[in-house]
Amino acid sequence: MLEAAVEYFSSRSHDAWRRNFLKANPGERGKPRMRLRGGVMVDVNQPWSKLDPRAQQSNKRAALDAYAAVKQFPNDREAAADFIHECWIKANRKDASQPKALFKPYAKLPEVEKDKDRAHVDIMKKALAAVRKNARTKTPRKAAKVKRARTTAGVQIDASAWRRLERAAKDLSKALGREVSAEVLAAAGVEAMVGLCKTVAAKARAKRG
């Protein structure tokens, strides 16, 4: 679940940041915005799909920080945002391209900067909710497949095998000129296998005797 939540958070938080950045700075569209990522200056003014892998990795680390914040402060948005800001300071203290004003304690940041940390809290909560919902929707489908399995002559046959039996029964019915159901075909197959097993067992006993 964590891996899926990290991917959800990373892609959406980056693209949301870029949309807001370009909305506030329309003249920056198409221009590189260089930031230190993985020891190298890379252009972060790119959509997630085209973002340098080192920048993507940086976003994923931020996602893990957001996950830790939400887990530690599940019902305190401000405390979680404060935690995220402290993590950001530790991760970016060597990046000279970052404005010094951003390295203040969370409580002293302007609201517009606090909102960025709060957004990380909100996006991670959405990520976790989306992953849980996806997990719940997958489980019933699997259960339904098991429920549709047939039992014939004491042998359980899954839905895929049953469809093949139905096609075979239809072909056999055409060849014989009379109706042969999938149930009859399955039962005949089971009986044939039982008979074969008995024959093999009898021959084996005869050889030993």
Description:
- This protein has 209 residues and is mainly α.
- It folds into 2 domains: 2-145, Globin-like (Orthogonal Bundle), CATH 1.10.490; 149-208.
- Helix content is 67%, strand content 7%.
- It has 6 helices and 4 strands; from the N terminus they run αββαααββαα.
- It has helices at residues 2-24, 53-72, 77-92, 111-147, 159-176, 182-208, and strands at residues 34-37, 40-43, 150-152, 155-157.
- The strands form 2 sheets. It has a two-stranded antiparallel ribbon with strand order 1-2. The protein has a two-stranded antiparallel sheet with strand order 3-4.
- α2 (53-72) packs antiparallel against α3 (77-92).
- The mean pLDDT is 83.
Secondary-structure blueprint of this entry?
Blueprint: H1 2-24, E1 34-37, E2 40-43, H2 53-72, H3 77-92, H4 111-147, E3 150-152, E4 155-157, H5 159-176, H6 182-208
Antiparallel strand pairs: 1-2, 3-4
Helix pairs in contact: 1-2, 1-4, 2-3, 2-4, 3-4, 5-6
